[in-house]
Amino acid sequence: MRLCHMTCCLLFLALFSVDADAGTFTGTIREISPDGKNITVYSASRKKAVTFPVDGRKLKVSINNKTGRVSQLKVGDLVTIFTSTSGTPLKIYCREPLGNKPTRRPTSSKKKTSPKTKTGKSSRPNAVAGNVPGWTQFLGPNRGNRSMESGLLDRWPDSGPELLWTARNLGEGYSAVSIADGKVFTMGTRNGREIVLAIDLQTGKELWATPNGEIFRNGQGNGPRSTPTYDNGKLYSLGANGDLSCLNAQNGQSVWKQNILSTYGAQNIQWGISESPLVDGEKVVCTPGGSVATMVALNKQNGSPIWLAKVPGNPKAGYASVVVATIHGRKEYINFCHNGLLGVDAESGKPLWGDNNASNGTANCSSAVVFKDAVFYASGYGTGGALLTFSSRDAKPTMVYKTNKMKNHHGGMVAVDGFIYGSNEQILTCLNVRAGKETWEDRLNGDGKGAITYADGRLYFRSEKGPMYLIEANPKEMIIKGRFDQPERSGNQAWARPVVANGKLFLRDQDILLCYDVRK
């Protein structure tokens, strides 16, 4: 055994001889950026994660002692990365866990498949081609409000999960965060201006801040409401006064900018533009709610219009964000505007349908929840929710039911296995989507109104009063798995959505952003 071990070490050194002053970092791949240009590796022994830029054309890779490629690496792999003194990766050595028979990794364009269990189900149900999508936009991957993370804590200590860092000097606002390329992006205010910020994912240190427009001021709270969207090295941010910007995500330099209200004949709404822009292919999609266009699709490279959707009646913008649906094979953009829910053809911008059964006349805030050929949406102010179905590609929606058991104000909803979880005003509720009936409800001792997201079988619920809850996504009963009070609470309502990504929980509260470790 000793001789075998020495042989393996010699082979390892032969494959990867490095300069004496080069560094090494061993750990598990936690994230691979969508463009494959950055890999985040977590070291359990050092209790830290590092994001490395990788160049697939120059970087040497060995997988199980055989020459490999960067594109063959996947989340969960154990790797050692050799770097230059400046931290630039030179070589990557990847090895399978001991006791596992090495498997051949695809090098062709054939579709990758997840390993199967004896039941035929994927043993990694959240994996997509070996990669775990990050949180590059509001509501996360596919705007489903569901994190694709796994291996998270199934119960929190009484004091809550470990607080890793606190970022400060963010200013005012209710923006949540997006995460990509080893950075956390959000919006705030500083020196009399609205700003877009980038923060280091590992340390919480500010990397850059770029002015985006004038500060929106309102009795319910000043500052921006939306979350920046990351796409292929660019960051798209929409301010509360309608200032839409495209920035270089690496350094914050401006690429292009326009005001969607003045450009498309719209006026600001009472509590400020709150929509987070959607990036889909070459399009940036948002909803100015103007006389020139209700919804627009812009070229993401320069901001020029691809199409303008002018909905009859010229409805004003609501406070929700666009979601994507495929209804009987047709791709649609759906948003909740001031007058109701509407669908637009994604390719042409043609208005397709509208519905106001779950719309109120004050503020429609929560994005719709999309199923296969059905859509559920809800609002507060005593209104409730409605389930819509579509009998064919060109059919108008049919309301299956309307319920007063999901009067969701602004904290959003999440669908899990045929059930919707969210706040019914002051009551956290689980709703059977098909039947429209609640299966449980709980006031959480007065904390039951708030914002929700989902990760790894559990609900992350943030009461607008401040307390943070971990709850089983169990449709039969409400089971609390953890609760803690956020430190340094501001005097404002905790309306910014919680985000779970990269094994971390992010909570924005006005001037500060807190990052917690929620991985096992």
Question: Would you spell out the secondary-structure blueprint of this structure?
Answer:
Blueprint: H1 2-15, E1 23-32, E2 38-43, E3 48-53, E4 60-63, E5 66-68, E6 78-83, E7 89-95, E8 146-147, E9 162-167, E10 178-180, E11 183-190, E12 193-200, E13 206-214, E14 229-231, E15 234-238, E16 243-248, E17 254-259, H2 260-263, E18 278-280, E19 283-286, E20 295-299, E21 305-309, E22 323-327, E23 330-336, E24 341-345, E25 351-355, E26 369-370, E27 374-379, E28 384-389, E29 398-403, E30 413-416, E31 419-424, E32 427-432, E33 437-442, E34 450-455, E35 458-463, E36 468-472, E37 480-484, E38 499-501, E39 504-509, E40 512-517
Parallel strand pairs: 4-7, 8-34
Antiparallel strand pairs: 1-2, 1-6, 2-3, 4-5, 6-7, 9-40, 10-11, 11-12, 12-13, 14-15, 15-16, 16-17, 18-19, 19-20, 20-21, 22-23, 23-24, 24-25, 26-27, 27-28, 28-29, 30-31, 31-32, 32-33, 34-35, 35-36, 36-37, 38-39, 39-40
Describe this structure in words.
This protein is mainly beta. The protein has two domains: 2-95, Nucleic acid-binding proteins (OB fold (Dihydrolipoamide Acetyltransferase, E2P)), CATH 2.40.50.140; 141-517, Methylamine Dehydrogenase, Chain H (7 Propeller). Strands 3-2-1-6-7-4-5 form a seven-stranded mixed sheet, with no helix packed on it. It has a five-stranded mixed sheet with strand order 8-34-35-36-37, with no helix packed on it. A four-stranded antiparallel sheet has the order 9-40-39-38, with no helix packed on it. Strand 27 (374-379) and strand 28 (384-389) form a beta hairpin. It is globular, with a radius of gyration of 24 Å. Residues 1-22 and 96-131 have low confidence and may be disordered.
